[in-house]
Amino acid sequence: MLETEGVVPIEFFFRKTELIVTFLVILLGIAFGNLRIKGVGFGSSGVLIVAMIAGYFYQFEPIIILQDLGIVLFLLCVGLEAGPSFFRAFKQHGKRYIANVLVLLAVAGVTVVAIIAIASVPPGVGLGLFAGAFTSSPALISALQFSPESEVIFGYGVAYPFGLLGVILFITISVKLLRGRMEAEVQSRSQVHTAVYKVHNTELTGTLIRDIELFQLHNVVVSGILRDLSLRTAGGNTVLLVGDVVRLEGLPDDVKTVGELLGEEIHEKFDENSELDTRSIVVENTSVLNRSLNDLGVRLRYNISITRVIRSNVEFVPRHDLTLEYGDVVVAVGTPYQLDQLELFLGHEHHTVQRRVDIGSLAATLFLAFAIGGLIIPVPTLGPFSLGLAGGALVAGLIFGHFGRIGNFIGRFPRNATAVLKELGLALFFVQVGFDTGQSFVESLDFQAVYYAAYAVLFAVIPMLASFLFGHFFMKIPVSECFGVICGGMTFTPGLDIIRQADVSERPVIAYSSVYPVALILVIALVQGMNLALVALGAVG
């Protein structure tokens, strides 16, 4: 044995704290949620699943103050993001898209309340099943405000995978059955056409896109360029080279004419797994109104492609001399950062936008959230009613998001800032709830869960079917737009990828984005309404 005299022993100590455990679980949960099978994964709910596993095996104690902070941050940011478009969406699409969403949610509410009452499902479990069937985090948070956490989380955990599967199967099967009708609708539209061409014209090599009169004469836009296996944006200062693969957008005849002068058409999708994004931006900045795109220098300043403009439900390819009007929807292609900057320029008045999160303004919104949530209103026969932390945060976010500024306090922050705060709040909330319910969830699993899974599928499929039948046959909404409304109403983004198999236009996306912020708010109100209905029916003890 070797002598170790004179050697100073060093011992390492590690103190386990609640915060270390919390953020380790968030890290593992995000990694799990990012796993995708054919583009579908658990997303933010991955944090909840990992937290429930950790809570079951290690019985971690939840930190209530982090749970409350998480609720407030998440719903406050939901309100801030929805505020600018929430009331406008009601005004612009009240007779079509919004009515369709109201049918979707109304049928969902009636179905949930009826099954809970008839099958004697515990109300907390039933509301959790609804939140899981709709894969809706806001609905889950709303249900947790007035139902036992263990019941709600159990229902959510059982329903989530079956609700997810039910939505995917419904949309996939429907798209396959109605593909012919969808293609006929697409062909009958006077819409912007997209085609991909490979450049062979040597006379154009090395020329800036803005200097090529061919595009201006035929009103065709280059929305993306594939060069050296890299997809990039195509702004006015982008150089065109022989061998480039370009995506052209415009009227069918114009695209064909320009494409044949550039080179040959190829049939391939070159935008998969790219960093480019498409975003619809509503013009609200009064300083850009009645000024042309050329005068504003939008394409050169942000190096993005404006592929179309929608004005009074009429879609067209914008010329460089097009003057913008209030309420125009500008469809642009670029990187997320470029689109964020363009949205700050076109989307809001300058004095209502901050390029960073203003801490004083954030504190003001949080104060208003807690103040509204603390109000207690007596309701005859039902007792005292309060919006609670969740409702207070949501209302405060909507108020600040809608008005943009109240006094010296700003209510509109950059999209990436509110997205980070929202995801952080949801993660903090999910960790604490998972710790608290992991043990009880496993202990509650029995044969009854099979019936709960069947109820979850019904909660998802029945409202979707009713919404489609009402929207397409009564409201005369095209099939692909109906599915866009359904995905937006259920806040189910992956469904758009399935729809785009038959309709690659922006119409389903516009339908989705038009109702998404409204649905986020209404689904929270729906959960509270269902709870009141169950109280009135005596289902809640």
Automatic annotation (TrEMBL):
Pfam family, any one: Asp-Al_Ex
Matches recorded under InterPro entries: AAE_transporter, RCK_C, RCK_C_sf, YidE_YbjL
Organism: Thiohalophilus thiocyanatoxydans
Membrane topology: Multi-pass membrane protein
Any one GO cellular component localisation term in the record: plasma membrane
Highest taxon above the source species: Bacteria
Gene3D superfamilies the record matches: Regulator of K+ conductance, C-terminal domain
GO molecular function, one term: monoatomic cation transmembrane transporter activity
Subcellular location, principal: membrane
Regions that span the bilayer: 12-32, 39-58, 64-87, 99-121, 153-173, 359-379, 385-404, 416-435, 450-470, 482-499, 519-540
Keyword annotations: Cell membrane, Membrane, Transmembrane, Transmembrane helix, Transport
Entry protein name: Putative transport protein
One GO biological process term: potassium ion transport
Family in the record: Belongs to the AAE transporter (TC 2.A.81) family.
Location within or outside the cell: Cell membrane
Location of the RCK C-terminal domain: 182-264, 265-348
